Every structure is written in structure tokens, then in C-alpha cells.
Amino acid sequence: MNRNLFLCISFLCVFSLIANAQQDKDIATVESILLRQANAWNRGDIDAFMQDYWKSDDLQFIGGNGVTYGWQNTLEGYKKRYPTPEAMGHLTFDIIKVEKLNKKVIALTGKFTLLRKNDTPTGHFLLLWRKIKGSWVIIADCTSPAS
């Protein structure tokens, strides 16, 4: 094998390993943020739960009542729908698929379950994450309760 060809193939292999390691790191970061959000929810702390949403008027939350724009509006919507720890219940997430669309965008599909005293609502969600100023934040949340 030509020495230059061997060096080129070796470089590509190392570059691919580094790129995959970065991708795995970013996905692991997003998954750990999701766990942190569930923990905040389960403490009854909606403000902490919302810290990883994009603090922008361009944030989108799509749910049963249509599209809500903006971080503040999304926070207020959560507080209105879940006014007490009892209404919030115990939240768990099951991650179904995580895909890094490019170095600054991740799509995460999952299932949520709320265990409450009188019911157990479930549903699915798609979160779009963007890396902004070095931090991963949710820029769009499409959540659909099971019917």
C-alpha cells in the first residue's frame, strides 16, 4: 500500500473517531439535561425545569392547545396547567431516539409518564435542541398526550 494512502486512511479513521466521540458527548449532555429536568419537575420546581429551554421569544411549545411562542409564555402555561406538586405528579422520561442532525442541532424523541394519585397521563414528545453559546437548549417542544 502506498505510504501516503495509508497515512490518509489513518487520518480519516482518527478524525472519524474524534467526531463520533464529540457526537456521543453532545448526546450524553442532552440526555443528562433531560434527567435533570425530570428531577426538577419531581421536586415541584417548574422554574428549574424550564432553565434548559431557550430563553427567547422564538421558543416554540406545541401541545394540545396549539402553538405557544416564547419562554415566558411557556413557563406560564406550565404553571397554569400544573399549579401544585400533586397536579405535577412524578415525571419519567423514556428516550426513544436521539439523532444529531448537525454539530449544533439534536432531535430527541421520547415518551413521558406522569404518575399521579388519581391518574397516569402519558404521551410522546419531540424536542429540538440547539447548541447556543456553548450550551444545549430546547428550541422547540412538541408534546402530545396519549388519547
List the helices and strands and how they pair.
Layout: H1 3-42, H2 46-49, E1 60-63, E2 66-69, H3 71-81, H4 85-88, E3 90-102, E4 105-115, E5 122-132, E6 135-145
Task: Compose a concise summary of this entry.
This protein has 147 residues and is an alpha+beta fold. The chain has helices at 3-42, 46-49, 71-81, 85-88; strands at 60-63, 66-69, 90-102, 105-115, 122-132, 135-145.
Molecular structure report:
The radius of gyration is 19 Å and the shape is globular. The protein has one domain (3-145): Nuclear Transport Factor 2, Chain: A (Roll), CATH 3.10.450.50. It starts with a helix and ends with a strand. The chain has a six-stranded mixed β-sheet, with helices on one face. Helix content is 40%, strand content 37%. By secondary structure, it is of the alpha+beta class. The protein contains four helices and six strands. The model is unreliable at 4-8 and 10-21 (pLDDT under 50). It has helices at 3-42, 46-49, 71-81, 85-88, and strands spanning 60-63, 66-69, 90-102, 105-115, 122-132, 135-145.
